[in-house]
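Re: weekly structure request thread

Next one in the queue (444 aa):
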Amino acid sequence: MYILGIDIGTTKIAGVLLEVPGKRMVEAVSVNSEADIPSPHEWERTQNPDVILQKAESIIADLKGKAKGKIACIGISSQMHGFLYVDGDGRSSGPLYTWQDNRAAVPVEPAGKSARELIQDRTGKSVYSGYALATHYYNFLKGLAPDSPYRIVSIGGYLGMRLCGLTEATIDPSEGAGFGLYDPDAGDFCLDEIRSLWGHTDFLPACVSFHYQMGWDGEGVPVFQSMGDNQASFYGAMEGREESLLLNLGTGGQVSLLMDKPPSCLKGLEVRPYPGKCLVVGATLAGGKSFDMLMDFLGDVLSFFGKPLSKREILEIIDKADFHSPPVPLRVEPFFNGTRENPDVRGSIGNIELDNLTTSHLVYAFAEAMVGELKDLLEENSLDRPEILRHIVGSGNGIRRNPLVRRLIEELFHCRLFLSDLKEEAACGAALYAYEGLIKSSVK
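Done, posted below.
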């Protein structure tokens, strides 16, 4: 018997086919989503949901063809915080507004206040820029939401709807909390606050519990409600190591720690819903993208001098280099896409002297900043203690493909790093999560 998982990330779509019992990897595939929609606005980050849908469905069909037996279930992992509008027929009514979209920080009234600030003023609750309800409030205020009746849904929820032929949008706690204005204790959105902003709550997806089966696809395979990619990555990477810290570097970056009862006051960290417990999560907006940006810069320099190299060739050279902390190190602030708390702040390179602005020093400083930003989130909350950080499990290509980053993680966190056993952790987590839901439903 086989289980199938699909992960819709920011830059790629991945799928896995696992054989159970035993959870043996049969096939893993990933493709670049290539769904970005160009925009004249530097704060706008949108994607074409139908391009994503087509590629995801193609991966699912391909993996089904590799199975030599029954497909037991399909699980979905989805990039968090973003959303799209769907009409009464369950079809998209515009683009996917991704978690990187920063319109909620743009002033929308003569007083110069942003949608995010207005939400805070009118409800007393904070919603980060890039979260669905902050982005949607900007659209609502600017008249950009659809004229006809609509609901909002995550891209993973949209895939599930289309696979099952559904017209109603649903959302689980992991993605509901990622939309903002959500009460995890109640398992529902903050309806009074939402009514005070929009006058109604008709646009919200219906809240469902963890392990909710959405329906069946066209071939009768059970499809389970999509899960946020942060929780799905933890599910896939940490099986048997739940007491460890998960450090993920992909397009963004996260540190995730599973806890029964998190500290009452956290600075720069979120408490996210997770089956049976909760995840304490610190998220950065640049993450592995900052190193990717550096590779683009180095490629541009080489091209300028008539010595072009591809990004892959540059990375191969860097992987073989021997880096050491310089006597006078460069200091990089990797806020190239802002921060959750301050979306307008930008990155910088400092502590430059006459003889330390070199390629090797720059590469080292960028890698150190990527890791250090995540370490700082734990340190500020006294969660970097040895009794908590016994091990670190690393996931994401920003760690897997970068020996310098792996070394710096162990040096800065003062503990051993393990790479997760499964590649495409979020897709694997989605498959295992759906399988667990299938087992639970069969026991009832």
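The chain has a mean pLDDT of 91. The CA atoms of residues 107 and 425 lie 38 Å apart.
Next request, please.
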